[in-house]
Write a structure and sequence with these properties.
globular; mainly alpha; 0% strand
Length: 190
């Protein structure tokens, strides 16, 4: 796989995480660059690890399992995770003001990791596919992780601007974005 193809692959793998990052930034109370970078590093790390896992799955199962097995289910898993998280955000955003908590200044690691995993399942499927062609998986995974870290950090900062425009309805906006991304992932694979 040539360097241009690897770069395009890395950028394409980071687009859904970028969209999610916008909603994450919109739901935070005045996120700082350090928080945006933290979120970017969490997403980037997970996005870099999943194609390596997929590559190992592809290599270990090449002789007895069809590589399309992971590809047959990855979009359903991503869709389910993102819809459940999106519905939770919408529920939180529609609570009456008296019940609503103040917007957090940072998201929990668990929620971020779960969301990052939901957006990186396609990278695992790509990793399975890469096991069947000549490619340096560590370079590919590193580029995917770097692109995702940069795109997510920028997405959180962009979400900060959108969040200030939307006011208290930013959680609803973020939840709708997660559901839309899940639907987009599902529709691209059906």
């Amino acid at each position: 796989m040539n360097p241009v193809a690897l770069l395009l692959l890395a950028l394409s793998m980071s687009t859904d995480a970028f969209s999610v990052a916008i909603s994450k930034g919109a739901s935070l109370k005045n996120p700082r660059f350090t928080e945006a970078l933290r979120i970017g590093l969490i997403f980037g790390t997970i996005e870099a690890i999943t194609p390596i896992i997929g590559w190992f799955i592809g290599h270990s199962t090449a002789s007895f399992v069809d590589a399309s097995f992971v590809e047959a289910w990855d979009h359903w898993i991503a869709f389910t995770i993102l819809v459940v998280l999106g519905l939770h955000m919408i529920y939180e955003g529609l609570k009456p003001s008296s019940e609503r908590e103040e917007a957090p200044s940072r998201h929990s690691f668990f929620k971020l990791a779960l969301t990052a995993f939901g957006t990186s399942i396609d990278a695992m499927a790509i990793g399975v596919s890469l096991a069947f062609i000549e490619v340096n998986i560590l370079l590919a995974a590193g580029l995917i992780g770097l692109a995702t870290t940069i795109m997510v950090t920028l997405g959180v900062m962009l979400g900060k601007v959108l969040g200030s425009l939307l006011g208290h309805k930013n959680e609803v906006f973020g939840g709708l974005m997660l559901i839309a991304i899940g639907a987009w992932i599902l529709s691209n694979h059906l």
